[in-house]
Amino acid sequence: MFYEFATRGQMVSPYYYNCTGTSPFTESKPIVGAIYMSIGVISQIIYVLALYTIFRSPSLFTHPCYKIMFFLGIPDVLCLIFCADLAGFYSIYGLHPCYAINFTFVTGCICFGLFRTQNINGFVYSGLWHMSCMYVLLLAFNRVCELIAPSQCAFLFRSSYFKCLLFLPVFYFIYFTFFTKPTFFQPSVSAFLLNPMSEVTKNFPAEYYTVQAYVFNNFFVMFFIGTCYIIICSYLIIESWKSQIKQTSALVKRVTYQCLIVCTCHFIGCFLYVYIQYFSMPDVLNYVCHFAWIGNHSEFTGTFVD
Q1: What is the reported pTM?
Q2: Do 90 and 41 touch, CB atoms closer than 8 A?
């Protein structure tokens, strides 16, 4: 963990993150890597422009929903640097996690808080993912409240209450950055794994690298977001029936499709990324898994453009 490095000066665990006899290079996938990088760069440009627009617009930034989206955008953009840009770079050149230990350790610490960390190279994508998850949950909760009970829940999104809610994900980021294990991008399987998969560690039991908080986070995100969007979609459908609207409006359709895309990306990404830590999957599912992860951080760019 980064905490151990900061307090004891220990960079890499000689047992759990041993790169002895491991080649710094692995299978190169230039096409896949180029796709990752292209999606990342395009999404980041759109995202940054959208965030700038929100911040510069008083009418938008004062609205709780847009303010949450602004703070969500920050870890999303940073996450894309790791899960899209650097993942693409590592895929193009076929760089194994054991390629640049010091660099990957530092980026990993910043990133499972963004994404997580104890050491070695690959790169660790730790706190940002979990920070992003918290903002997504907060955004989903805000949408449900404003749609179902705007008057009763209004106090939660005003003044000091709202400020506390906005900064809760920061503590989540700190925990996963400093106090949990790291994850490393493996070009050979196009996914982030908790095990660096060196010649020494690749046959270690998966339990050695299990992060219970990570597993809980992913399954809770699936449950919470799924519940929120079922409520939203059900409410919109019921209200449309009450209004005797025979055909679903364009707005209802758009919101429903958006909810479906959001849920799909998070369900696939959250579930498969836990599954892949313990079981091998066909290559096509590995790609689906990682594209879903990238989609988790880039899907809102489509919402902004819309």
Answers
A1: 0.81
A2: no
